[in-house]
Specification:
By secondary structure, the protein is of the alpha+beta class. The chain is 18% helix and 41% strand. It has two helices and seven strands. The chain has a seven-stranded antiparallel sheet with strand order 1-2-3-5-6-7-4.
Length: 149
């Protein structure tokens, strides 16, 4: 079922919301499905990214920790875009649960990260996250984070 996009955030909008910058900004675009609760982040995986010089030069794959970070950044963008937040505070990891890596992301892939808020309590957020490419699930996790100051 196709989901209705209510807002699309391009790189300029993302830079206003997150303090991350190259080479650690890992989201290129976000489509908001439900304000503050659900969105889809996109990351173009390209060979000229610094992690591929060492992971692995002959067989470049996106490191799992960067996949988790990209999903967390997407969660932060979804939350901060609904509050009119600025980029002064980082989204701080508190937990990664049920992480599974099913297939690697390779240069040339477009990582599509679907995040859905499951719970929010006193500035702590829990999101169910799935990362896919061309409709094929590559990774998933439940991420818990808080908004830093």
């Amino acid at each position: 079922m196709e989901q209705q996009v209510i807002k699309e955030l391009k790189i300029g909008d993302i830079l206003k919301l997150l303090p991350h910058r190259y080479p650690f900004l890992l989201v290129d675009k976000v489509q908001i499905i439900q304000e503050g609760c659900e969105g889809i982040g996109f990351k173009n995986v390209t060979m000229n990214e610094p992690q591929f010089t060492g992971h692995f030069p002959e067989n470049p794959i996106m490191p799992g920790v960067l996949i988790m970070e990209a999903m967390a950044q997407t969660c932060g963008i979804v939350v901060k875009s609904s509050t009119g937040g600025d980029n002064s505070g980082a989204v701080l990891f508190m937990g990664i649960d049920e992480a599974k890596f099913r297939k690697p992301f390779l240069p040339g892939d477009i990582m599509e990260m679907h995040v859905v808020k499951e719970k929010e309590c006193r500035g702590v957020y829990r999101f169910k996250c799935r990362a896919s490419c061309n409709g094929v699930l590559h990774a998933e996790a439940i991420l818990t984070a808080m908004m830093g100051r």
